[in-house]
Amino acid sequence: MIAYVGLGSNLGDREAALRRALELLDATPGLRVVAASSFRDTAPVGDENQPRFLNAVCAVETELAPRELLARLLEIELALGRVRDATRRFGPRTADLDLLLHGDETADEPDLVVPHPRLVERRFALEPLFEIAPELALPDGRRVADVLAELSWAACRTSTSSTSTRPSSSFA
């Protein structure tokens, strides 16, 4: 089963946090990172009074069920120093890992929604998803390319940092 995970960070060394998240995902039993997008420097969404984000998407081959994969994503966020602030839902964070898609599966439970409920609204997730899976269709049959074409271009630009923005070759 191929699942897609969104990665983001806007506190500390954002690039190091995303690289470490990819390493921790790849070290998870029953899960292997098979592709990772380039990193994108993006404006915050929702709560705009915070630093810019670095975002990416990775594809993972997994035996884990959606709930198990979500639990692992939350463990990795904690390992990377994520502190959830109940008063600031979309606030700054060292690491944010979202389960975007889990094959063609869908779920609509209080603490698990697949596909991610705001995926089709977020260029910062759709662009890197399209980069690594240009022919991908969502469970509702819409192609990622078509959904992406419908969105505004305002929020996202490719990172221009002086360091490499490509994940290591072990994830390509």
What's the gist of this structure?
The chain is an alpha+beta fold. It has helices at 14-26, 66-79, 123-132, 144-149; strands at 2-9, 31-36, 40-42, 53-62, 96-102, 107-109, 112-114, 156-158.
Write out key terms for the chains shown.
172 residues, alpha+beta, Alpha-Beta Plaits, 6-stranded antiparallel beta sheet, two-stranded antiparallel ribbon, 4 helices, 25% strand, globular
Account of the protein in words:
The structure is a single chain. The chain is of the alpha+beta class and 172 residues long. It has one domain (2-171): 2-Layer Sandwich (Alpha-Beta Plaits). Helices cover 25% and strands 25% of the residues. The protein contains 4 helices and 8 strands. Strands 1, 2, 3, 4, 5 and 8 form a 6-stranded antiparallel beta sheet that branches. Strands 6-7 form a two-stranded antiparallel ribbon. A hairpin with a 2-residue loop joins strand 6 (107-109) and strand 7. The longest helix has 14 residues, at 66-79. The two termini are 17 Å apart.
